[in-house]
TrEMBL record, chain A:
PANTHER family: 3-KETO-5-AMINOHEXANOATE CLEAVAGE ENZYME, 3-KETO-5-AMINOHEXANOATE CLEAVAGE ENZYME-RELATED. This is 3-keto-5-aminohexanoate cleavage protein. Its cofactor is Zn(2+). Gene3D superfamilies: Aldolase class I (3.20.20.70). Residues 90-115 are annotated as: Disordered. It comes from the Archaea. Keywords: Metal-binding, Transferase, Zinc. One of its GO terms (molecular function) is metal ion binding.
TrEMBL record, chain B:
It comes from the Archaea. It comes from Halorientalis pallida. This is Uncharacterized protein.
């Protein structure tokens, strides 16, 4: 994927990360937390141009929930309210065991995609999301057994090394799908030259999603569009629309990035096109 | 055992919620949902080692 992909006007897949598990309504009251709220947000995001929804589950008070049963409630709501959106479950979970983090893979039907965090990252001052290679392998293997396509989440350049090494340990179906994540802390510093280096270092043929946290969301999505990638936006990653103005909804963020893609000459992928591009 | 600074409330001066949510009485603010797992010592988390707010307040 490259600038030539942009020049060719190939479709852009928009992923909407609707809720996450880190912050909640205390940060932005529009963050959907209950299954019904998440389902409604998915429908609005799909109508605005998203073909993939990245899902976490929460308890009614916003706190993280990992059980299969709660993910089932969420995915049922999403599937009943959307036309044909691609469902992607998170397997992230700071401080949670591998067994706990595998629970979201066990819904019926299973998600078409699931996230796979490719290495450690710091949380707060005394905590690390470890994501050891053994954890990555275990989650990958269950995804493979269940026919779920992994979305590799690369929080920094070291995780690009981990991706190359994973390909030596496991056979992943083409195309490889990776999300490049830029932001503060352990994440790759959000600078354009770091973005360019990262896309050059990915394994040959990798489809990349571009994700900038917080104020970097729109800028990095735009770079992703210009360099032939795909984009992820949503309230999980950014609660603001502009500096000092909180976003009204996930759909508002999707609609804006869809407009950027269209303005730059890349159409927003339909769900059918997204499935074909992702090899689902 | 949950953090002694943890409370569940529906509102403070800036927020109002439909359900009780995790509130840190040391920091005097509602906490992020992920941090609430630390407050409650859920999974493999432990507020006595993982939370800088508890550690500072307990000094």
């Amino acid at each position: 994927m490259s600038y030539e992909t942009y020049l060719a006007g190939e479709p852009v897949i928009v992923t909407a990360a609707l809720t996450g598990g880190v912050h909640g309504k205390e940060a932005n009251p529009a963050i959907p937390e209950t299954p019904a709220e998440i389902g409604a947000a998915a429908a609005a995001a799909e109508a605005a141009g998203a073909s993939v929804v990245h899902l976490h589950a929460r308890q009614d008070n916003g706190e993280r929930a990992f059980p299969t049963e709660r993910f089932q409630e969420v995915t049922d709501e999403v599937r009943s309210r959307t036309e044909d959106v691609i469902v992607q479950h998170s397997t992230g979970g700071t401080g949670a065991s591998v067994e706990t983090r595998a629970q979201p893979l066990r819904t019926d039907p299973p998600p078409e995609m699931a996230s796979l965090d490719m290495g450690p990252l710091n949380r707060y001052d005394h905590l690390t999301s470890e994501n050891t290679r053994a954890t990555v392998d275990a989650l990958h293997d269950e995804m493979q057994d269940r026919g779920i396509k992994p979305e590799l989440e690369l929080f920094n350049d070291g995780h690009i090394n981990e991706t190359h090494q994973l390909l030596e340990r496991r056979d992943l179906d083409d195309p490889l799908c990776a999300t490049l994540i830029f932001g503060s802390g352990t994440l790759t510093r959000p600078r354009p030259r770091n973005f360019l280096n990262a896309i050059d270092d990915l394994p040959e043929g990798t489809l990349f999603n571009t994700l900038g946290f917080g104020p970097h969301q729109l800028a990095f999505a735009t770079m992703g569009i210009l360099f032939g990638g795909h984009v992820r936006v949503g309230l999980e990653d950014n609660v603001y629309y502009e500096r000092g103005e909180i976003a009204e909804s996930n759909a508002q963020l999707v609609e804006r990035v869809a407009g950027v893609a269209e303005t730059l000459g890349r159409p927003v992928a339909t769900t059918e096109q997204a499935r074909e591009i992702l090899g689902l | 055992m949950a953090c002694p600074y943890l409370a569940y409330r529906r509102e403070d001066a800036e927020h109002s919620f439909d359900t009780d949510r995790a509130y840190c009485t040391a920091a005097e603010t509602f906490v992020q949902p992920m941090r609430a797992d630390i407050c409650n010592d859920r999974h493999e988390l432990d507020h006595t080692t993982d939370c800088e707010i508890y550690l500072e307040a307990d000094e």
